[in-house]
Amino acid sequence: MSNMSIFGIIVTAMIVQNIIFAKFIGCCPFFGVSKTLDSAIGMSLAVIFVIVMSSALTWLGYYYLLVPFHIEYLRTILFILVIAGFVQFVEMAIAKFSPGLYKALGIFLPLITTNCAVLAATIINIDENLSFIKSCVNGFAIAMGFGIAILILAGIREKLEFSPIPKHFQGLPISFMCATCLALAFMGFSGMQI
Amino acid sequence: MNEILSPVFILGGSGLFIGLFLAYAAKKFEVQKDPRIDQIVGVLPGANCGSCGFPGCSGYAAAIVEEGAPLNSCTPGGAAAAGKIGEIMGATVDVSGPKMTARVLCQGHKVEKKYAFTGTINTCADVAQYAGGDKSCRFACLGYGDCAAVCPADAIHVIDGIALVDETKCISCGLCVKACPKAVIALTAADKKVTVTCSSKDPGAVARKACPTACIGCGICAKICPKQAITVENNLAKIDPEKCVNCGICVNGKPAVGENPAVKGCPTGAIVNNFKRPVKAAAAPAQNASAPVV
After folding, report:
1. Helix ranges (DSSP H) in chain B
2. pLDDT tens by residue, chain A, 194 residues
3. Burial B236-256 (b: 16+ CB within 10 A, else e)
């Protein structure tokens, strides 16, 4: 992946290796916040912002703090620390400077702290030996992939509200089945190399 | 030595740095909150039970100040909390309405089991899926303790196979009412001691066959009640809390005052004086001589 073009990284991270449908990471917010399109859009915007910023921060932390002292094995702890601190800070800053945005994103920002897709994105960046710029691009594409997935499911679930579904399948069960079908569809991309 | 020290310093240092930075940012970016929110959080009981319909006590406090939520939605706090919230908000609060408590409307701990459930499932909700539960009375408390599990006040315990509410601890949040798949728990007026402690809507013969303390819908209680507070609907006696005066005439074996001593209350013991109901020995029928007469 490190010798791929920017375009290749984007397509790979967004569609071929979609974080939800191919890697099954971040499924909790995927099902939790996909009841309506509105909340799904808010969540995916917040995720895009947080993943890009934490890709950059953790890349710096890894290559300037951990690598020089040969303590790369501590990356998970450091990354969690950085992501959690960053999200806290962003929440405070948004609450101060943009109350409107804070109301819109409000509940999603703290949720992202516990979103494993963020941690996964930063660790993928390191595992793939990406440069700083490519890390940010990769993070952006992973977040876009998350956004695509959650928007598709939210659209379907809004329609499901009006569908004659047997009582025992209503709610999450039918959502799991829809997500399965979506994941099967995305398997069509597997193995593609750009 | 370095292998130990450098991780400690790097990780501890970055943790310290981020912590200090966040502390500084919290001061710098502090948003002025309405001080009344914190005051209201102070007078709320802090049970975070969610019975007000908002996420936790702080969510309810914020909703009161910012969105004008009703001031009397806190059932655990009751009239006391509502009054204090009214003082803080400078509004008069309607605190009428009796204090409520949850009660388990079943004494069917001795009801025989229809089948022996040998799976590893141990919640009422799951067992209720199998032929309506393992009790031979289809309305009975299953005794697997779903209600006890959700109770935030530790007020419900399953004793001898039946759930019992400790009314001194109950905060009337209603979580157990929602959790019970058999709907044998109800919020009732706490000051009304006499309760029909049965939920069986089966005809008398069927109900009695399944349970010795079932309400058989005979109507004796309705006949002897001096206030006409009891009606029988769907083979089940029902006490109107507005009319009930706690006289206890309908309770098992208690002759009506000034009446023929032969006229006794509920013949099966389905009506119980709830304050006298022994918690440990729930097996015994309700006490008969000690019901206060008003």
Report:
1. 2-28, 35-43, 56-67, 78-89, 124-127, 146-150, 175-179, 204-210, 220-224
2. 677 888 999 999 999 999 999 989 988 888 888 888 888 888 888 889 889 999 999 999 999 988 988 888 889 999 999 999 998 888 888 888 877 777 766 667 777 877 889 999 999 999 999 999 999 999 999 999 999 999 999 999 999 988 888 888 988 899 999 999 999 999 898 888 77
3. bbebeeeebeebbbbbbebeb
DSSP annotation of A77 reads H
Q: Which two tokens stand for residue B191?
A: 């000051």
- A77/B11 CB distance under 8 A: yes
Give the span between the Cα atoms of B234 and B217, in whole angstroms: 8
This prediction's pTM: 0.56
How many whole angstroms separate alpha carbon B153 and alpha carbon B49?
A: 9
- Across the interface, of B18, B26, B29, the residue whose CB is closest to A81 is B18
Could you tell me which residues are beta bridge partners of residue B158?
Answer: B163
Q: What mean pLDDT comes out for the span B144-148? A: 89
B127-132: long-range pairs with CB below 8 Å, 24+:
B128/B181, B128/B182
**Chains A, B: CB pairs < 8 Å:** 46
Nearest CA in chain B to A70: B3
Do the chains contact at A82 and B14, CB–CB below 8 Å? Answer: yes
Q: How far apart (Å, rounded) are the C-alpha atoms in residues A78 and A93?
A: 22
Contact residues for B20 (Cβ-Cβ < 8 A; gap 6+): none
CB neighbour list of residue A10: distance below 8 Å, 6 or more residues apart = A137, A140, A141, A144
How far is residue B190 from each of residues A154, B40, B45, measured CA to CA in Å? Answer: 45, 26, 19
Mutation test of the interface with chain A: which of B22, B24, B32, choosing the one with the most A Cβ atoms within 10 A? Answer: B22
Three state DSSP letters for B31-81: CCCCHHHHHHHHHCCCCCCCCCCCCHHHHHHHHHHHHCCCCCCCCCCHHHH
Question: Distance between CA atoms of B251 and B273, rounded to whole angstroms?
Answer: 7
List phi, psi (to 5°) of B232.
Answer: -110, 115
